[in-house]
């Protein structure tokens, strides 16, 4: 019952924090425009007022080949720019998580931008240390444990006598991969929640608390995580299914397509809020 109660309370709390959701969406849009601006400017300079610009279609390989040949010397600069954008995005991700969890766990109704950014700055260094700590955990989970499982199951798959053996072994491998991914993600989600809920400045202690909390109630915590993940997958399936009915030609339908895409982005941000709020409620209900 604690799982469904936490999920229900998490849904309510996430819906009440609409201001936080809108702040996240605006920041994501501004970041996307900042990253895409150089590429859009390049296209505009080359195609903005030309016949080719009006006639260019998706996957025009002749134009793409000519563009690659013409701008082959700017590859290192583009690569460096993309790497810089990726690093900046990771730092922004860590920074915004502080404001997101801080506002979700706030007992009052404070959702103003000043309070949001105040929490971003307050928890940034703690969350950055947790992010850096998570890297070796992911490396161990996927670089070692998953590789060991693949090495064990590989000969069985290659020597399988029927396709059912391959299907079963592939299912085992997929389930193990999901378990590793959700387990590491859950541990550090609860560590962030403990940092904020208990105002814990020591990230190693918060990480130990997350291990202890999940260890005593793993299946319930994992069940909650999977329920929220199922909501995300259901929304993604609806987005893809409905998107098939939106024509790709015409300004009106282009506008509808853009709005539908942005609606899905808002939905994904809301699910992210639900992950934190639902797990925070589960932590509050089950910690004692």
Write the layout of secondary structure elements.
Blueprint: H1 2-16, H2 18-47, H3 51-55, H4 61-70, H5 75-104, H6 113-158, H7 163-197, H8 203-216, H9 218-243, H10 251-286
Question: How would you briefly describe this protein structure?
Answer:
86% of the residues lie in helices and 0% in strands.
Word description of this protein:
The two termini are about 15 Å apart. The longest helix has about 45 residues, at about 115-160. Helix 1 (about 1-15) packs across helix 9 (about 220-245) and helix 5 (about 75-105) crosses helix 6. The protein has helices spanning about 1-15, 20-45, 50-55, 60-70, 75-105, 115-160, 165-195, 205-215, 220-245, 250-285. It has ten helices and no strands. The chain is mainly alpha-helical and about 290 residues long.
**Major sheet: size, sense and barrel closure?**
none
Oligomer: single chain
Percent in helix: over 70%
In total, the number of strands is 0
Sheet/helix structural class = mainly alpha
Mean pLDDT over the residues? 80
Radius of gyration: 23 Å
Compute the separation of the termini in Å.
15 Å
The portion of residues forming beta strands comes to under 5%
* SSE string: HHHHHHHHHH
Tally of contiguous helical segments = 10
Which segments are poorly predicted (pLDDT under 50) over 5 or more consecutive residues?
50-54
Shape: globular
């Amino acid at each position: 019952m604690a799982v469904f109660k936490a999920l229900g309370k998490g849904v309510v709390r996430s819906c009440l924090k609409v201001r936080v959701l809108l702040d996240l969406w605006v920041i994501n849009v501004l970041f996307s425009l900042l990253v895409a601006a150089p590429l859009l400017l390049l296209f505009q300079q080359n195609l903005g007022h030309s016949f080719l610009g009006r006639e260019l279609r998706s996957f025009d390989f002749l134009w793409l080949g000519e563009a690659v040949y013409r701008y082959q010397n700017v590859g290192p600069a583009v690569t460096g720019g993309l790497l810089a954008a990726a690093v900046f995005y990771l730092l922004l991700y860590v920074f915004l998580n502080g404001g997101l969890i801080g506002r979700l766990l706030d007992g009052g109704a404070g959702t103003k931008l000043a309070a949001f950014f105040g929490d971003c700055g307050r928890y940034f260094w703690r969350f950055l240390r947790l992010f850096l700590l998570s890297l070796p955990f992911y490396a161990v989970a996927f670089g070692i444990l998953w590789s060991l499982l693949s090495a064990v199951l590989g000969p069985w798959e290659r020597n399988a006598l029927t396709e059912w053996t391959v299907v079963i072994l592939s299912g085992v491998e997929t389930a193990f991969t999901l378990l590793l991914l959700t387990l590491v993600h859950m541990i550090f989600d609860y560590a962030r929640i403990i940092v904020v809920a208990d105002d814990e400045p020591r990230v190693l202690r918060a990480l130990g608390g997350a291990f202890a909390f999940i260890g005593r109630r793993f299946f319930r915590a994992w069940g909650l995580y999977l329920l929220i993940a199922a909501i995300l997958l259901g929304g993604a399936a609806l987005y893809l299914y409905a998107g098939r009915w939106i024509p790709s030609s015409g300004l009106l339908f282009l506008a509808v397509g853009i709005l539908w895409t942005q609606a899905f982005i808002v939905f994904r941000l809301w699910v992210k809020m639900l992950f934190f709020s639902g797990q925070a409620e589960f932590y509050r209900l089950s910690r004692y």
